[in-house]
Structures are given as C-alpha cells and as structure tokens.
C-alpha cells in the first residue's frame, strides 16, 4: 500500500509494526470499525464515542478522519492487523498545535485484541510519526480515571504523569477526573535508542 498524500502535500506514511500496520482509513473499513467499537467496555472511558455504535457512526467518522487528515489538522490511523488485514482499532493525533509543536494522542482497540502488546506497538508507531514527520516536541494524553489499562500502556511507553484535572469530564452522568500524561521528543529518542 502506498503512502497517502494530503491536500497540502504532506506524505502520510503507512507505518509498519511487527503485527500491525497503521494506515489511513477507507470507506470499506466501516464494518470492522463498527464491530469492534460497538462495545460498552471499549467506549467506556472515551470522550465522544457513542454507544450503541452504528455503521452510520463509523461511516461518518471515516469521512471526518479523511477530511482532517487531508487538511493536516488531526490524523487518525486505522490499526490494521496483518493476520487478517482488518482494522481492529484507531490511533490518532489530534489538537495539533504546530506553533508549540504539541499534539494529543488517543486510541482504542477491539476488546478481543487487548493484552497482546498491540496498543503499545501502535503507540510507538504514532510517536515516531509525530516526532519524526510532524516534528512535534511534546505528545500528551488525557485518561479518564480509573482507566487502568490506558495508564499502564502510557507508563510502559515512557509517558510521564503531569497531573490530575479534577472532575473535568461528565461521562454517563458522572463527573470523572482526567489524568494527563506526556512524553517529550528527547525522552522518546532516549527510549528508542537507549544509550
Ligand atoms: C487502552 C488499550 C488501548 C490498551 O490496549 P492493549 O493492547 O491491551 O495494551 P498492550 O497489550 O499494548 O499493553 C501495554 C502495556 O500495558 C499493560 N497493560 C495493559 N492493560 C493493562 C491492565 N488492564 N492492567 C495492567 N496492565 C495493563 C500491559 O501489560 C503492557 O505492559 P508490557 O509492555 O510490560 O507488556 C485498550 O485497553 C483499549 O482499547 N481500551 C478501551 C479504549 C480506551 O480506553 N482508550 C483510551 C482512552 S484514553
């Protein structure tokens, strides 16, 4: 599969991991996204993913993702598993602030793929894209408390805890705290090329 070229000429690479490929989403991915995301446990600690999650939601999301990608505002990569070539999750860089070279990472994976190191592979892939291609300086994540799996993933990928935003999200009628984590470019470089 070839790299995708945006309206402004940026080359969005296909990012290859051991078991996965991160690539731009296509119309034909709607069914796989819907099947994996129509699960309360997956969307439980996410900000805007509705439940139930319909095929219409997936189609609309793909259109938005393609539009953002082409304008270089946000990037949403599908996480394709090499074994079946199906999309099993999404990982994104959003709120890209080119002036301060900051962006927010977000991700989800279908439940049956949890606990196999796949999210970590995807996260390292998108960090590489953010720091190498977009020349970012800091990438951060906001995790609703108590999303233990996401906290563990970030810690294992080298993110540092920055602070707790108290009751900053209203989720299913409850106020939840958000935990902010980040990784700086220099920390990422040390991590991938340990001295
Ligand atoms: C968060 C999420 C993507 C993690 O996916 P995953 O593929 O299971 O994560 P990985 O297998 O790559 O785990 C990475 C590390 O975190 C650890 N980890 C993951 N889930 C864990 C859990 N529930 N408890 C303890 N440790 C956990 C793993 O042991 C692994 O550590 P290692 O590198 O030492 O082996 C997945 O749980 C998910 O999609 N959740 C729903 C969506 C969501 O909440 N997104 C985040 C919004 S901020």
Automatic annotation (TrEMBL):
Q: So which domain of life are we looking at? A: Archaea
Give the keywords, sorted.
Transferase
Pfam families the UniProt entry points to: Acetyltransf_3
Q: Which residues form the N-acetyltransferase domain?
A: 20-186
Matching entries from InterPro entries are given as: Acyl_CoA_acyltransferase, GNAT_dom, N-acetyltransferase
Q: Which PROSITE patterns is this protein grouped with?
A: GNAT
- GO terms, molecular function: acyltransferase activity, transferring groups other than amino-acyl groups
Record-linked PANTHER family: GNAT FAMILY, PUTATIVE (AFU_ORTHOLOGUE AFUA_3G00765)-RELATED-RELATED
Protein's UniProt name: GCN5-related N-acetyltransferase
């Amino acid at each position: 599969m070839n790299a995708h070229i945006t309206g402004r000429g940026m080359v969005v690479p296909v990012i290859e991991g051991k078991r996965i490929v991160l690539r731009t989403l296509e119309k034909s991915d709607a069914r796989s996204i819907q099947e994996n995301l129509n699960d309360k446990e997956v969307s439980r600690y996410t900000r805007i993913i509705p439940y139930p999650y319909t095929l219409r939601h997936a189609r609309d999301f793909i259109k938005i993702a393609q539009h953002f990608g082409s304008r270089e505002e946000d990037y949403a990569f599908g996480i394709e598993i090499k074994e079946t070539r199906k999309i099993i999750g999404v990982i994104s860089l959003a709120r890209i602030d080119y002036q301060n070279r900051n962006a927010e990472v977000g991700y989800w994976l279908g439940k049956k793929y949890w606990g196999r190191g796949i999210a970590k592979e995807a996260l390292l892939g998108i960090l590489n894209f953010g720091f190498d291609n977009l020349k970012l300086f800091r990438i951060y994540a906001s995790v609703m408390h108590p999303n233990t799996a996401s906290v563990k993933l970030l810690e294992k990928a080298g993110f540092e805890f920055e602070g707790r935003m108290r009751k900053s999200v209203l989720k299913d009628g409850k106020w939840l705290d958000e935990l902010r984590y980040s990784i700086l470019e220099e920390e990422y470089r040390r991590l991938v090329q340990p001295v």
